[in-house]
Structures are given as structure tokens and as C-alpha cells.
Amino acid sequence: MSTKNKQIKPEHVAKASTKNAPVSTKHCIELCRWLRYKNTSEAKKMLEEVIGLKRAVPYRKFVRDIGHRAGMSTGRFPQKASKEMLKLVKSVEANAQGKGLDISNLKIIKILANRAPTPFTGSRHRHGTKRSHIEMEVMERRSKSKDVKEKKEDKKNNQSHPASTGIKANVNEKPKNKPQSQDKVQEHKVQHQHQEKTKAQHTSPQV
After folding, report:
1. Domains and CATH numbers, the chain
2. Which helix H or strand E contains 194, and what residues bound it?
3. Would you state the pLDDT for residue 1?
4. 21 Cβ contact list (under 8 Å, min separation 6)
5. Mean pLDDT computed over every residue of the chain
6. What does pTM read for this prediction?
């Protein structure tokens, strides 16, 4: 499932992230693939079922030494990672509420997990611990009626402002011919009368 290539307005998007979460990056990657493009209310319900061992997460990439589950091929119950993911979903909902978005109509459009620096703990027998960075973005699903109203308002605003092309056309237009002055008109009349006299002299019969 993929989203349509539309221009997403930033006022309809909310973000949240967690850094250095003490969970496995592999589990987070599988959870991100499972929750992507889901509604936030549905995602919370799914994670709560995983924490309660009522629903398994299907694994597609990291499947080595993983057994099959009922109704799927390979799957596990990543409880610790699910708890961190549930906190992140609630956090992004709170951020969306702060921006004035409708919490009941939020869709996860971006969710990803990256490996964080692994700190070493312990004194003599120290070992590396698991850390992950998780990011999430949600978008408010707009109803068709609201979109139609916004388009109508945009058209009205565009019609109220003059178009730039019309202004350029007026600038490039050539100036119209100005009316000739009275002196030039009189000169033309005198020249015309002189030409008529010369024609009359040439055409007059010789005695």
C-alpha cells in the first residue's frame, strides 16, 4: 500500500521521535513495516494485543531461527519494542492535538527505525547493549467536503488578484500613434495646394 503523490501541507502533519531507545532495532524494523499506513487508533490496539500476547507480529526480513505462529508463517511477540512504539504513538497524537488536528482521523505516513550507538556496560565483563532511534509522522485525513471548500476559496483568491501575464502584455504593447500637431497639418495643406497649382499650370492650354 502506498500513498498518492500529493503535496502534503505541513499544517496537517505531526511528528515525534525517540532517541536511544533500549530495544532491538530488528524488532523495531518489523514493527514499523507492520504499522505503516495504519490509523493511530488501530495501531494502538494492535500494539496492546502484542503486549498482552494475544497477537503475534509477522516477521518478513529477520526470520532466522523463528518459529511459525497460528495464521502466519514466522512471527514473534516483541513486547519491549511494542511498549516503546506505543509510547511513540501516544506522543505523536499529543503533538497532533497541540496543532489542532483531529486525533481520531490520523494516519501514519512515515515510521522508521535506525540503529543507535551501542554503549558498553559492565566493568570486567562488559558487553554492548541494544539501542535504536525511531521516527514517526502522522497526517490528518481530510474529508472531501473540506477539500472542495479549500479549492473554492483558493479560486476566489486567485480571481481577486490580477494576473501577472496581463500586466506583462500591457507593458509590451506598442504606444498608439499620437495625433499630429496643427503646424504639421498646415504644412501638409500648403504642400497640397502648391502641387495643385503646378498641375494646373502644366495642363493650361498655350495661346
Report:
1. 11-149 (3.90.470.10)
2. helix 182-203
3. 44
4. 28, 84, 116, 131, 132, 133, 134
5. 82
6. 0.65
Distances (CA, A) of 41 to 95, 130, 187: 15, 28, 92
State the residue for C-alpha cell 487508533.
41
Tell me the backbone φ, ψ of residue 187, rounded to 5 degrees.
-60, -45
Residue type, 110: K
Q: Cα(17)–Cα(130) distance, rounded to whole angstroms?
A: 17
| pLDDT value at 3 more than 60 | no
DSSP H or E stretch at residue 186: helix 182-203
- For 99, the grid coordinates are 496543532
Which residue, chain included where needed, has cell 502534503?
A: 8
Q: What are the helix and strand counts (H, E) for the chain?
A: 6, 7
- Residue of 53, 97, 98, 42 whose CA lies nearest to 78: 53
33-37, 128-132, 153-157, 172-176: lowest mean pLDDT where? 172-176
